[in-house]
Amino acid sequence: MLLFLMRRLMQGLIVMFVISIISFSIQDNLGDPLRELVGMSVSEAERDALRDEMGLNDPFLTQYARFMGNALQGDLGQSYFFKEPALDVILAKMPATLELVFAASLIIILISIPAGVYCAIKPDSWLTKLILGFSILGISVPVFLTAIFSIYFFSIELGWLPSYGRGDVVPVFGGLETSLFTRDGLSHLILPAISLASIMLPLFIRLIRSEMSEVLHTEYVKFARAKGLKKARIYFLHALKNTMLPVITVGGVQIGTMVAYTILTETVFQWPGMGFLFLEAVNRVDTPLIVAYLIVVGAIFVVVNTLVDLLYGLINPTVRLARSGQ
Amino acid sequence: MKKTMKLSIKRLAGAALAASLAVGAQAATLKMAYDSDPVSLDPHEQLSGATLQLSHLVFDPIIRWDQNHQFEARLAEKWERVDEKTVRFTLREGVKFHSGNPLTSADVKWTVDRLIDSPDFKAIFEPFAEVKVIDDRTFDLVTKEAFPLLLNSATYIFPMDSKFYSGLDAKGQEKALLKKHGDTYASKNASGTGPFIVTERQQGVRVEFERFDGYWDKKSPGNVDEIILTPIKEGPTRVAALLAGDVDFIYPVPPNDHDRIRKSGNLDLITLSESRIISFQLNQERVEAFKDARVRQAINYAINNEGIVKKIMKGFATPAGQQSPEGYVGYVDDLKPRYDLKKAKQLMKEAGYEDGFSITMMAPNNRYVNDAKVAQAVASMLARINIKVDLKTLPKAQYWPEFDERSADMMMIGWRSDTEDSANFTEYLTACADSVSGWGQYNSGNYCNEAIDVLVKKAGSETDPAARAQLLRDVERKLYAEAAFVPLHWQNLAWGVSKNVAAAEVVNTMNFPYLGDLVIKE
Fold first, then answer.
1. Which end of chain B is more exposed for a tag (fewer CB within 10 A), N or C?
2. A262 or B362: whose pLDDT is higher?
3. Which DSSP helix (H) or strand (E) runs through B77?
4. Number of H helices, E strands in chain A
């Protein structure tokens, strides 16, 4: 276990190092940050002087060495736009994003498990066909379209839900703020969370359905049936447990992907999270913020995958962590 | 809608309690959404639309433009020309900053000195020599030479509270420090004389303003006592927020949504013609053929400006045949957009390019309204006179470095005159490039005609308005005859507002609405 975690930590550091090199080397192609900092009529000479002052004219290796030196002390640079350390800016926006991902995951879990299991048990029912039909639609419609349609329908036509932004927040432990516990906050959260969930939901319904129908054909399920166990017990205790193994693996990877997808969802809903922050940073050529974001998201991927592997070991004791860490 | 009302009433009650007597019976909250929020609270950090919009809320200028493009007295109650280099201003009595400090001539001097040193504003204030303080309420604005645009430039003087910005902040930096990328005191704290005080600011999320109860302009009809500004980046979301009643003032409105707002029963669409000219420049150093005026004319004749405005801009622009929009001193009424395909083909033939040639073209795709689509249309129109265009469109962040490099044969540029004057267009766009004076900085066409430069220079020191207008009109005529560049259209501005928001009275073509005077009806 300890060995596994140590290995993971090493791998994580290597991943982050690679990300930092890649993101640092693409920054020259993102545009000229000076253009976003000054007005149109500022002369080239003036801009060049500023560029010099900010160290942007230094050779790549000098800039990277300076960045690495600071990064080792926990300083990922200062955002041009926010004029604050990039890491602080991102961490301040992270709760909003994680809240959104959490809400979307909850929706996915609460819907995909019953729906997937139902489709496996009753493959010929009309409801199954309806669910599968919807899931095809869900896969093929891009998330920003889902988002815009839901705004149009629920905010403009029906006027039930607010069209943009995050609602009132309340502090929970450690100065962290969340909108999960206020009425206003929840009403703002519903549409973005559903839109974000809509990308992954079909995938999970289908995954659970196919895994489950495979499990239902195995010997032990037949045996359980023959033994006369209650149907619910067979399906939800014995069969579902084995269905969940691959689902958790996929789920772990997909949570990371979902963090990436928040870029689109947050932009459409003006959700003040880090995905929206990232897109804005790209538009403004706020390079320190872009680099810091990529590193933070890389870290999230590493952490989530490690947690999934740990969870995997708990559910399926036959898996040995030390080996899976290799 | 119901929810909005409830919220504002709640907020109102709170504000009324806090400000006790100061709040009138009809005081109202304005919820607005722009596509971006100001970079900084420092009015001198960046010369941009967002900064000027903020300046008109928090600071107040000494004079400003009214809707008819005339000067309106603000902090200066009167001014008179003393000699050809000097104008004497008198400040209003009893004007106070948000900090409680009284406004004096020393604050104006302090502000102008800071402007002259600032990277972004120094170009506008370059002709200024100094501010001479006569007494607490009187000062002279002195220019180095005779300068006809003294008042135009004075609209950029938003006095800052020099006492408030003096000394050191908690980090030991000068409070007055002006730094582009630094965490400065002035970028996070503000004290001006304007109608609103910033009470809360989460950059990129929301800015809240409260009316300053010591505001000097008691005659202003404005009844907005609270503004909540939310930046909403995506056009459709911004429009949706307005349609859903979550906000009641938005800018900009994408052309595709104009009809929806117009047809909606409880919203108004307000449009004004902006002074920003969208144009293409023809690089003569990269393409030999562009040196021939006939080829440049042929290109002008081949492009259907009116068609572009109608089809692509949905009528949301004014077709242009020159740089200066109507109302500017240099505007010439009879310089209309040219479109005559036959004539274009004939000119190409005369120039010996009947079989055409191939060129490269670049345009931004997120800077101007429908910029990429306009560029595509122009490219296909040029195909009809056998000019084959290889078009590349880029996000603005990547476009400007390319523009600085002059890396395509035809490049798009939109320009708005900072001085609200015709000469500014030529100085930046069509004058011979000169790195010392900074002229021709955005002249990617490398067009150069000394005679035109001489005229513009003359206009720069001509203080007789009639003679000056004559000079600048000559410039427009010469540029037109030589087809120095390809004018396309002047963009329009559009605001979407709730019917009870009387925004039409406070918006202007410069795009800084005077929200201090905004009236929200019950």
1. C
2. B362
3. strand B76-83
4. 14, 2
CA distance B137 to chain A (A): 32
> How far is it, in rounded angstroms, from Cα B197 to Cα B200?
9
Which residues on chain B are in Cβ contact (under 8 Å) with A32?
A: 397, 400-401, 404
Structure ipTM = 0.79
Reply yes or no on whether the pLDDT at A81 is more than 90.
no
Of all residues in chain A, the one with the smallest CA distance to B241 is A163
Higher pLDDT, A27 or B241: B241
* Contacts for A286 with CB less than 8 Å, ≥ 6 apart: A33, A36, A79, A80, A81, A82, A280
Query: Which among B39, B241, B435 is the nearest to A163, CB-wise?
Result: B241
The model's pLDDT over B67-88, given as tens digits with 9 standing for 90+, comes to 888 899 999 999 999 988 999 9
Residues forming a β-bridge with B200: B208
Question: What pTM value is reported for the model?
Answer: 0.83
Of A168 and A17, more confident: A17
Model confidence at A255, in pLDDT bands (50, 70, 90)? confident
Q: For residue range A36-76, list pLDDT tens digits in order.
A: 788 777 887 888 888 888 888 888 888 888 888 888 888 88
Q: How many C-beta atoms surround the C-beta of residue B252 within 10 A?
A: 17
Q: Per-residue pLDDT tens for A286-316?
A: 888 998 998 888 888 888 888 887 877 777 7
Regions of chain B with pLDDT less than 50: 1-25
Determine the residue of chain B that is closest to A81 in CA distance: B39
d(CA A212, CA B29): 56
Please judge whether B204 and A277 are an interchain contact, meaning their C-beta atoms are less than 8 angstroms apart.
Answer: yes
B188 to chain A: closest CA residue: A83
Query: And the tokens for A192?
Result: 């973005």
The confidence score (pLDDT) of residue B11 equals: 45
Q: Taking CB atoms and an 8 Å limit, are A39 and B435 in contact across chains?
A: no
> What residues of chain B lie within 8 A of the CB of A164, using their CB?
230, 232, 237, 240-241, 246
Higher pLDDT residue, B15 or A250? A250
Chain A residues closer than 8 Å to B47 by CB = 38-42
B96 three-class SS: strand
Let me know the angle formed at the C-alpha of A256 by A252 and A259, rounded to the nearest 5 degrees: 140
Half-sphere exposure of B86 (CA within 13 A, CB side): 11
Nearest to B183 among A83, A267, A268 (CB): A83
Percent helix, percent strand, percent coil in chain A, to nearest 5: 75, 0, 20
**Nearest chain B alpha carbon to A288:** B181
**Which residues in A lie closer than 8 A to residue B241 (C-beta atoms)?**
163-164
Rg from Cα positions in chain B: 24
Report the residue of chain B nearest A154, measured CA to CA: B244
Chain centroid to CA B491:
12
Phi, psi torsion values for B464, nearest 5 degrees: -85, 115
DSSP letter for each residue of B231-266: E--SHHHHHHHHHTTS-SEES---GGGHHHHHHSTT
Please answer yes or no on whether B46 and A162 come within 8 Å at the CB atom: no
Shortest CA distance from A285: residue in chain B: B397
Whether B203 sits inside 8 A of A148 (CB atoms) is: no
Contact between residue A322 and residue A310 where contact means Cβ atoms under 8 Å apart = no
How many CB pairs below 8 A link A and B? 132
Separation in Å, CA of B237 to nearest CA in chain A = 6
pLDDT value for A174: 66
From A136, A77, A108, A141, select the one nearest A289 (Cα to Cα).
A77
Q: How far apart are CA B103 and CA B193, in angstroms?
A: 8
Whether residues A270 and B1 touch (CB distance < 8 A) is answered with no
CB contact under 8 A, B230 and A164: yes
SS3 at position B197: strand
